Amino acid sequence: MKLKVSIIGASGYTGGELLRLLLFHPNVEVNQVTSESYTGKFVYKIHPNLRKSTMLKFSSVNELQSCDLLFLCLPHNRSQNKIDEFKKFAPKIIDLSADFRLKGANEYEKWYGHKHARPDLLNEFVYGIPELHREEMKKANYISSAGCNATASILGLYPLYKNNLVELDRTVIEVKVGSSEGGNKGNEGSHHPERANVVRSYQPTQHRHTAEMLQELSFGQKVTIHFSATAIDMVRGLLATCHVFLKNDLQEKDIWKVYRDAYGNEPFIRIVKESEGIYRYPEPKLLIGTNYCDIGFKKDEFSNRLVVISAIDNLMKGAAGQALQAFNLMNGFDERTGLEFPGLHPI
Amino acid sequence: MKTECPVCGAQIELASDAVQGELIGCPDCGTELEVVSVNPPQVKEAPQEEEDWGE
Question: Half-sphere exposure of residue A295, counting CA atoms within 13 Å on the CB side?
Answer without folding.
Answer: 28
